[in-house]
Design a protein that fits this description.
Blueprint: E1 3-6, H1 14-29, E2 34-37, H2 44-52, E3 55-58, E4 68-71, H3 78-87, E5 90-93, H4 97-111, E6 115-119, H5 125-131, E7 138-140, E8 154-159, H6 165-175, E9 181-185, H7 190-203, E10 208-212, H8 218-230, E11 234-237, E12 253-258, H9 264-278, E13 281-282
Parallel strand pairs: 1-12, 1-13, 2-3, 2-4, 4-5, 6-7, 6-8, 8-9, 10-11, 10-12
Length: 296
């Protein structure tokens, strides 16, 4: 009989759970409207659920005047925060503590005169927020992109929290020897690293792999890339209704992992749906974000 195994580290991290708790508590207590500045997390199912509870998404700080405005987990620029505090009656900061750490690192490097490189995805909300804390910084999306950069004497690197350390190491390798000093502020979230390692280990020994999470989620896409490198039958889904029985034809071992914006109930729903489609039983209890403790 086929089995389903969930990665030992999978699903919502501390930062996401913290943000959801803050917002749901605020929504239950708020007397006026409550909005999030951009989607709170990159999970359409959760965002829709929040909307049904009265928490809507604002595209700009002053799109809705008054009420409570929530700063998303990915963080915002100092200008956006200032505008939010002017436009809203109150502001709730749900920025992930690890993203805040990246902001502080960017500020430190800028203040100390480094040429700042932000290693991450151009246009991603987290990267945009970090750039706001380091005026003049350059985004480097791929390690090889650094080869074309003209470097000064002092180069500082701050990292999008969902990047992998292997990619960071490759970037640093390409910088060394081309400048007098390279200072790396390793702002990768430890929970992200643990999820990536667990996904790599599981995908290497299963016949089919399912990765759960929003398609706009950088950390989920990274998990899907890692899994696809070890298991050709890797599929990235957002909801159980995307599952295709053909994906699991002949599979004896089915692996499941989930991005850091995926609550445990969504993992449970997908595992149950795979079981109904294949007759497979779950070989291990789903591992969720509670293992992260106080980490993000």
């Amino acid at each position: 009989m086929p089995t389903i195994e969930v990665a030992r580290e999978a699903g919502a991290c501390y930062g996401v759970n913290r943000a959801l708790e803050l917002v749901r508590k605020a929504a239950a207590q708020a007397e006026g409207p409550i909005h999030t500045l951009g989607p709170l997390i990159h999970n359409p199912t959760v965002v829709e659920s929040l909307a049904q509870g009265g928490v809507t998404v604002a595209g700009a700080p002053d799109e809705f005047l008054g009420g409570t405005l929530v700063l998303r987990t990915h963080g915002v620029t100092p200008d956006e925060e200032a505008r939010a505090r002017e436009a809203a009656d109150s502001v709730l900061d749900a920025t992930c503590p690890f993203v805040v750490r990246a902001h502080r690192a960017a500020e430190t490097l800028t203040r100390e005169g480094y040429q700042v490189l932000v290693f991450g995805e151009a246009g991603h909300p987290e990267v945009l927020g970090t750039l706001g804390h380091a005026p003049g910084a350059t985004v480097v999306e791929r390690p090889e992109d650094a080869d074309a950069l003209e470097l000064g004497r002092k180069v500082g690197v701050v990292v999008q929290t969902t990047q992998s350390r292997a990619r960071l190491a490759e970037l640093v390798r390409r910088l060394l020897g081309r400048t007098d000093e390279v200072r790396v502020m390793d702002t990768i979230c430890e929970a992200t690293s643990e999820r990536q390692a667990a996904a790599a280990e599981l995908s290497a020994r299963v016949d089919a792999m399912v990765v759960i999470g929003g398609r706009m989620s950088a950390n989920t896409r990274r998990l899907a890339e890692i899994c696809a490198g070890a298991c050709a039958r890797t599929h990235h889904i957002e909801t159980p209704d995307e599952l295709d029985p053909a994906w699991f034809a002949g599979a004896e071992a089915i692996g499941v992992t989930a991005g850091a914006s995926t609550p445990q109930e969504q993992i449970d729903e997908v595992v149950a749906a795979i079981g109904r489609l294949t007759g497979a039983t779950c070989a291990s209890a789903p591992a969720a974000g509670e293992k992260d403790g106080a980490r993000g």
